[in-house]
Write a structure and sequence with these properties.
This protein is mostly helical and 135 residues long. It has 7 helices and no strands. It has one domain: 434 Repressor (Amino-terminal Domain) (Orthogonal Bundle). The chain is elongated. The termini are far apart.
Length: 135
């Protein structure tokens, strides 16, 4: 039989996960959640069954998966896993002040190879230099 503390810990994790998903305007149905998570998983993919358990408060993912979730949702892994620190979803509904399109773009850049990310960074720096010279 599971202890009351373990049960509460799972439920609290699920509540934080749901809050972060809502704040980041991300899907919270197991099927859609899994599609979005697995896009970012780098081999640490999950099943709908596992996602359903996280979302319902009957299981907590491994730390590796918590870190993937935290990066995706714009929160700290310690807040998501344990509820510690003050780096949860901001009250205004946008993770770290970024809009959903901004987060989607950053996620896409993050999935690129290191070489391709460097190309993107250099292009952005060049665009910023051009903008500051004309403004």
């Amino acid at each position: 039989m599971e202890s009351k503390v373990a049960t509460e810990e799972k439920e609290q994790f699920s509540a934080r996960l749901q809050r972060a998903l809502l704040s980041a305007q991300c899907p919270n149905t197991p099927n859609d959640f899994v599609k979005e998570f697995n896009l970012r998983a780098n081999g640490a993919c999950v099943t709908v069954y596992a996602a359903r358990k996280w979302l319902s408060g009957t299981a907590i993912p491994t730390q590796e998966k918590v870190q993937i979730l935290a990066g995706w949702l714009g929160v700290s892994s310690s807040w998501l896993r344990f509820g510690t620190d003050h780096d949860g979803p901001p009250a205004n509904g946008s993770a770290r002040g970024l809009t959903r399109p901004d987060r989607v773009l950053l996620d896409a850049v993050h999935r690129l190879s290191a070489r391709d990310r460097t190309v993107v960074y250099e292009m952005v720096k060049s665009l910023l230099r051009n903008t500051s010279n004309t403004g």
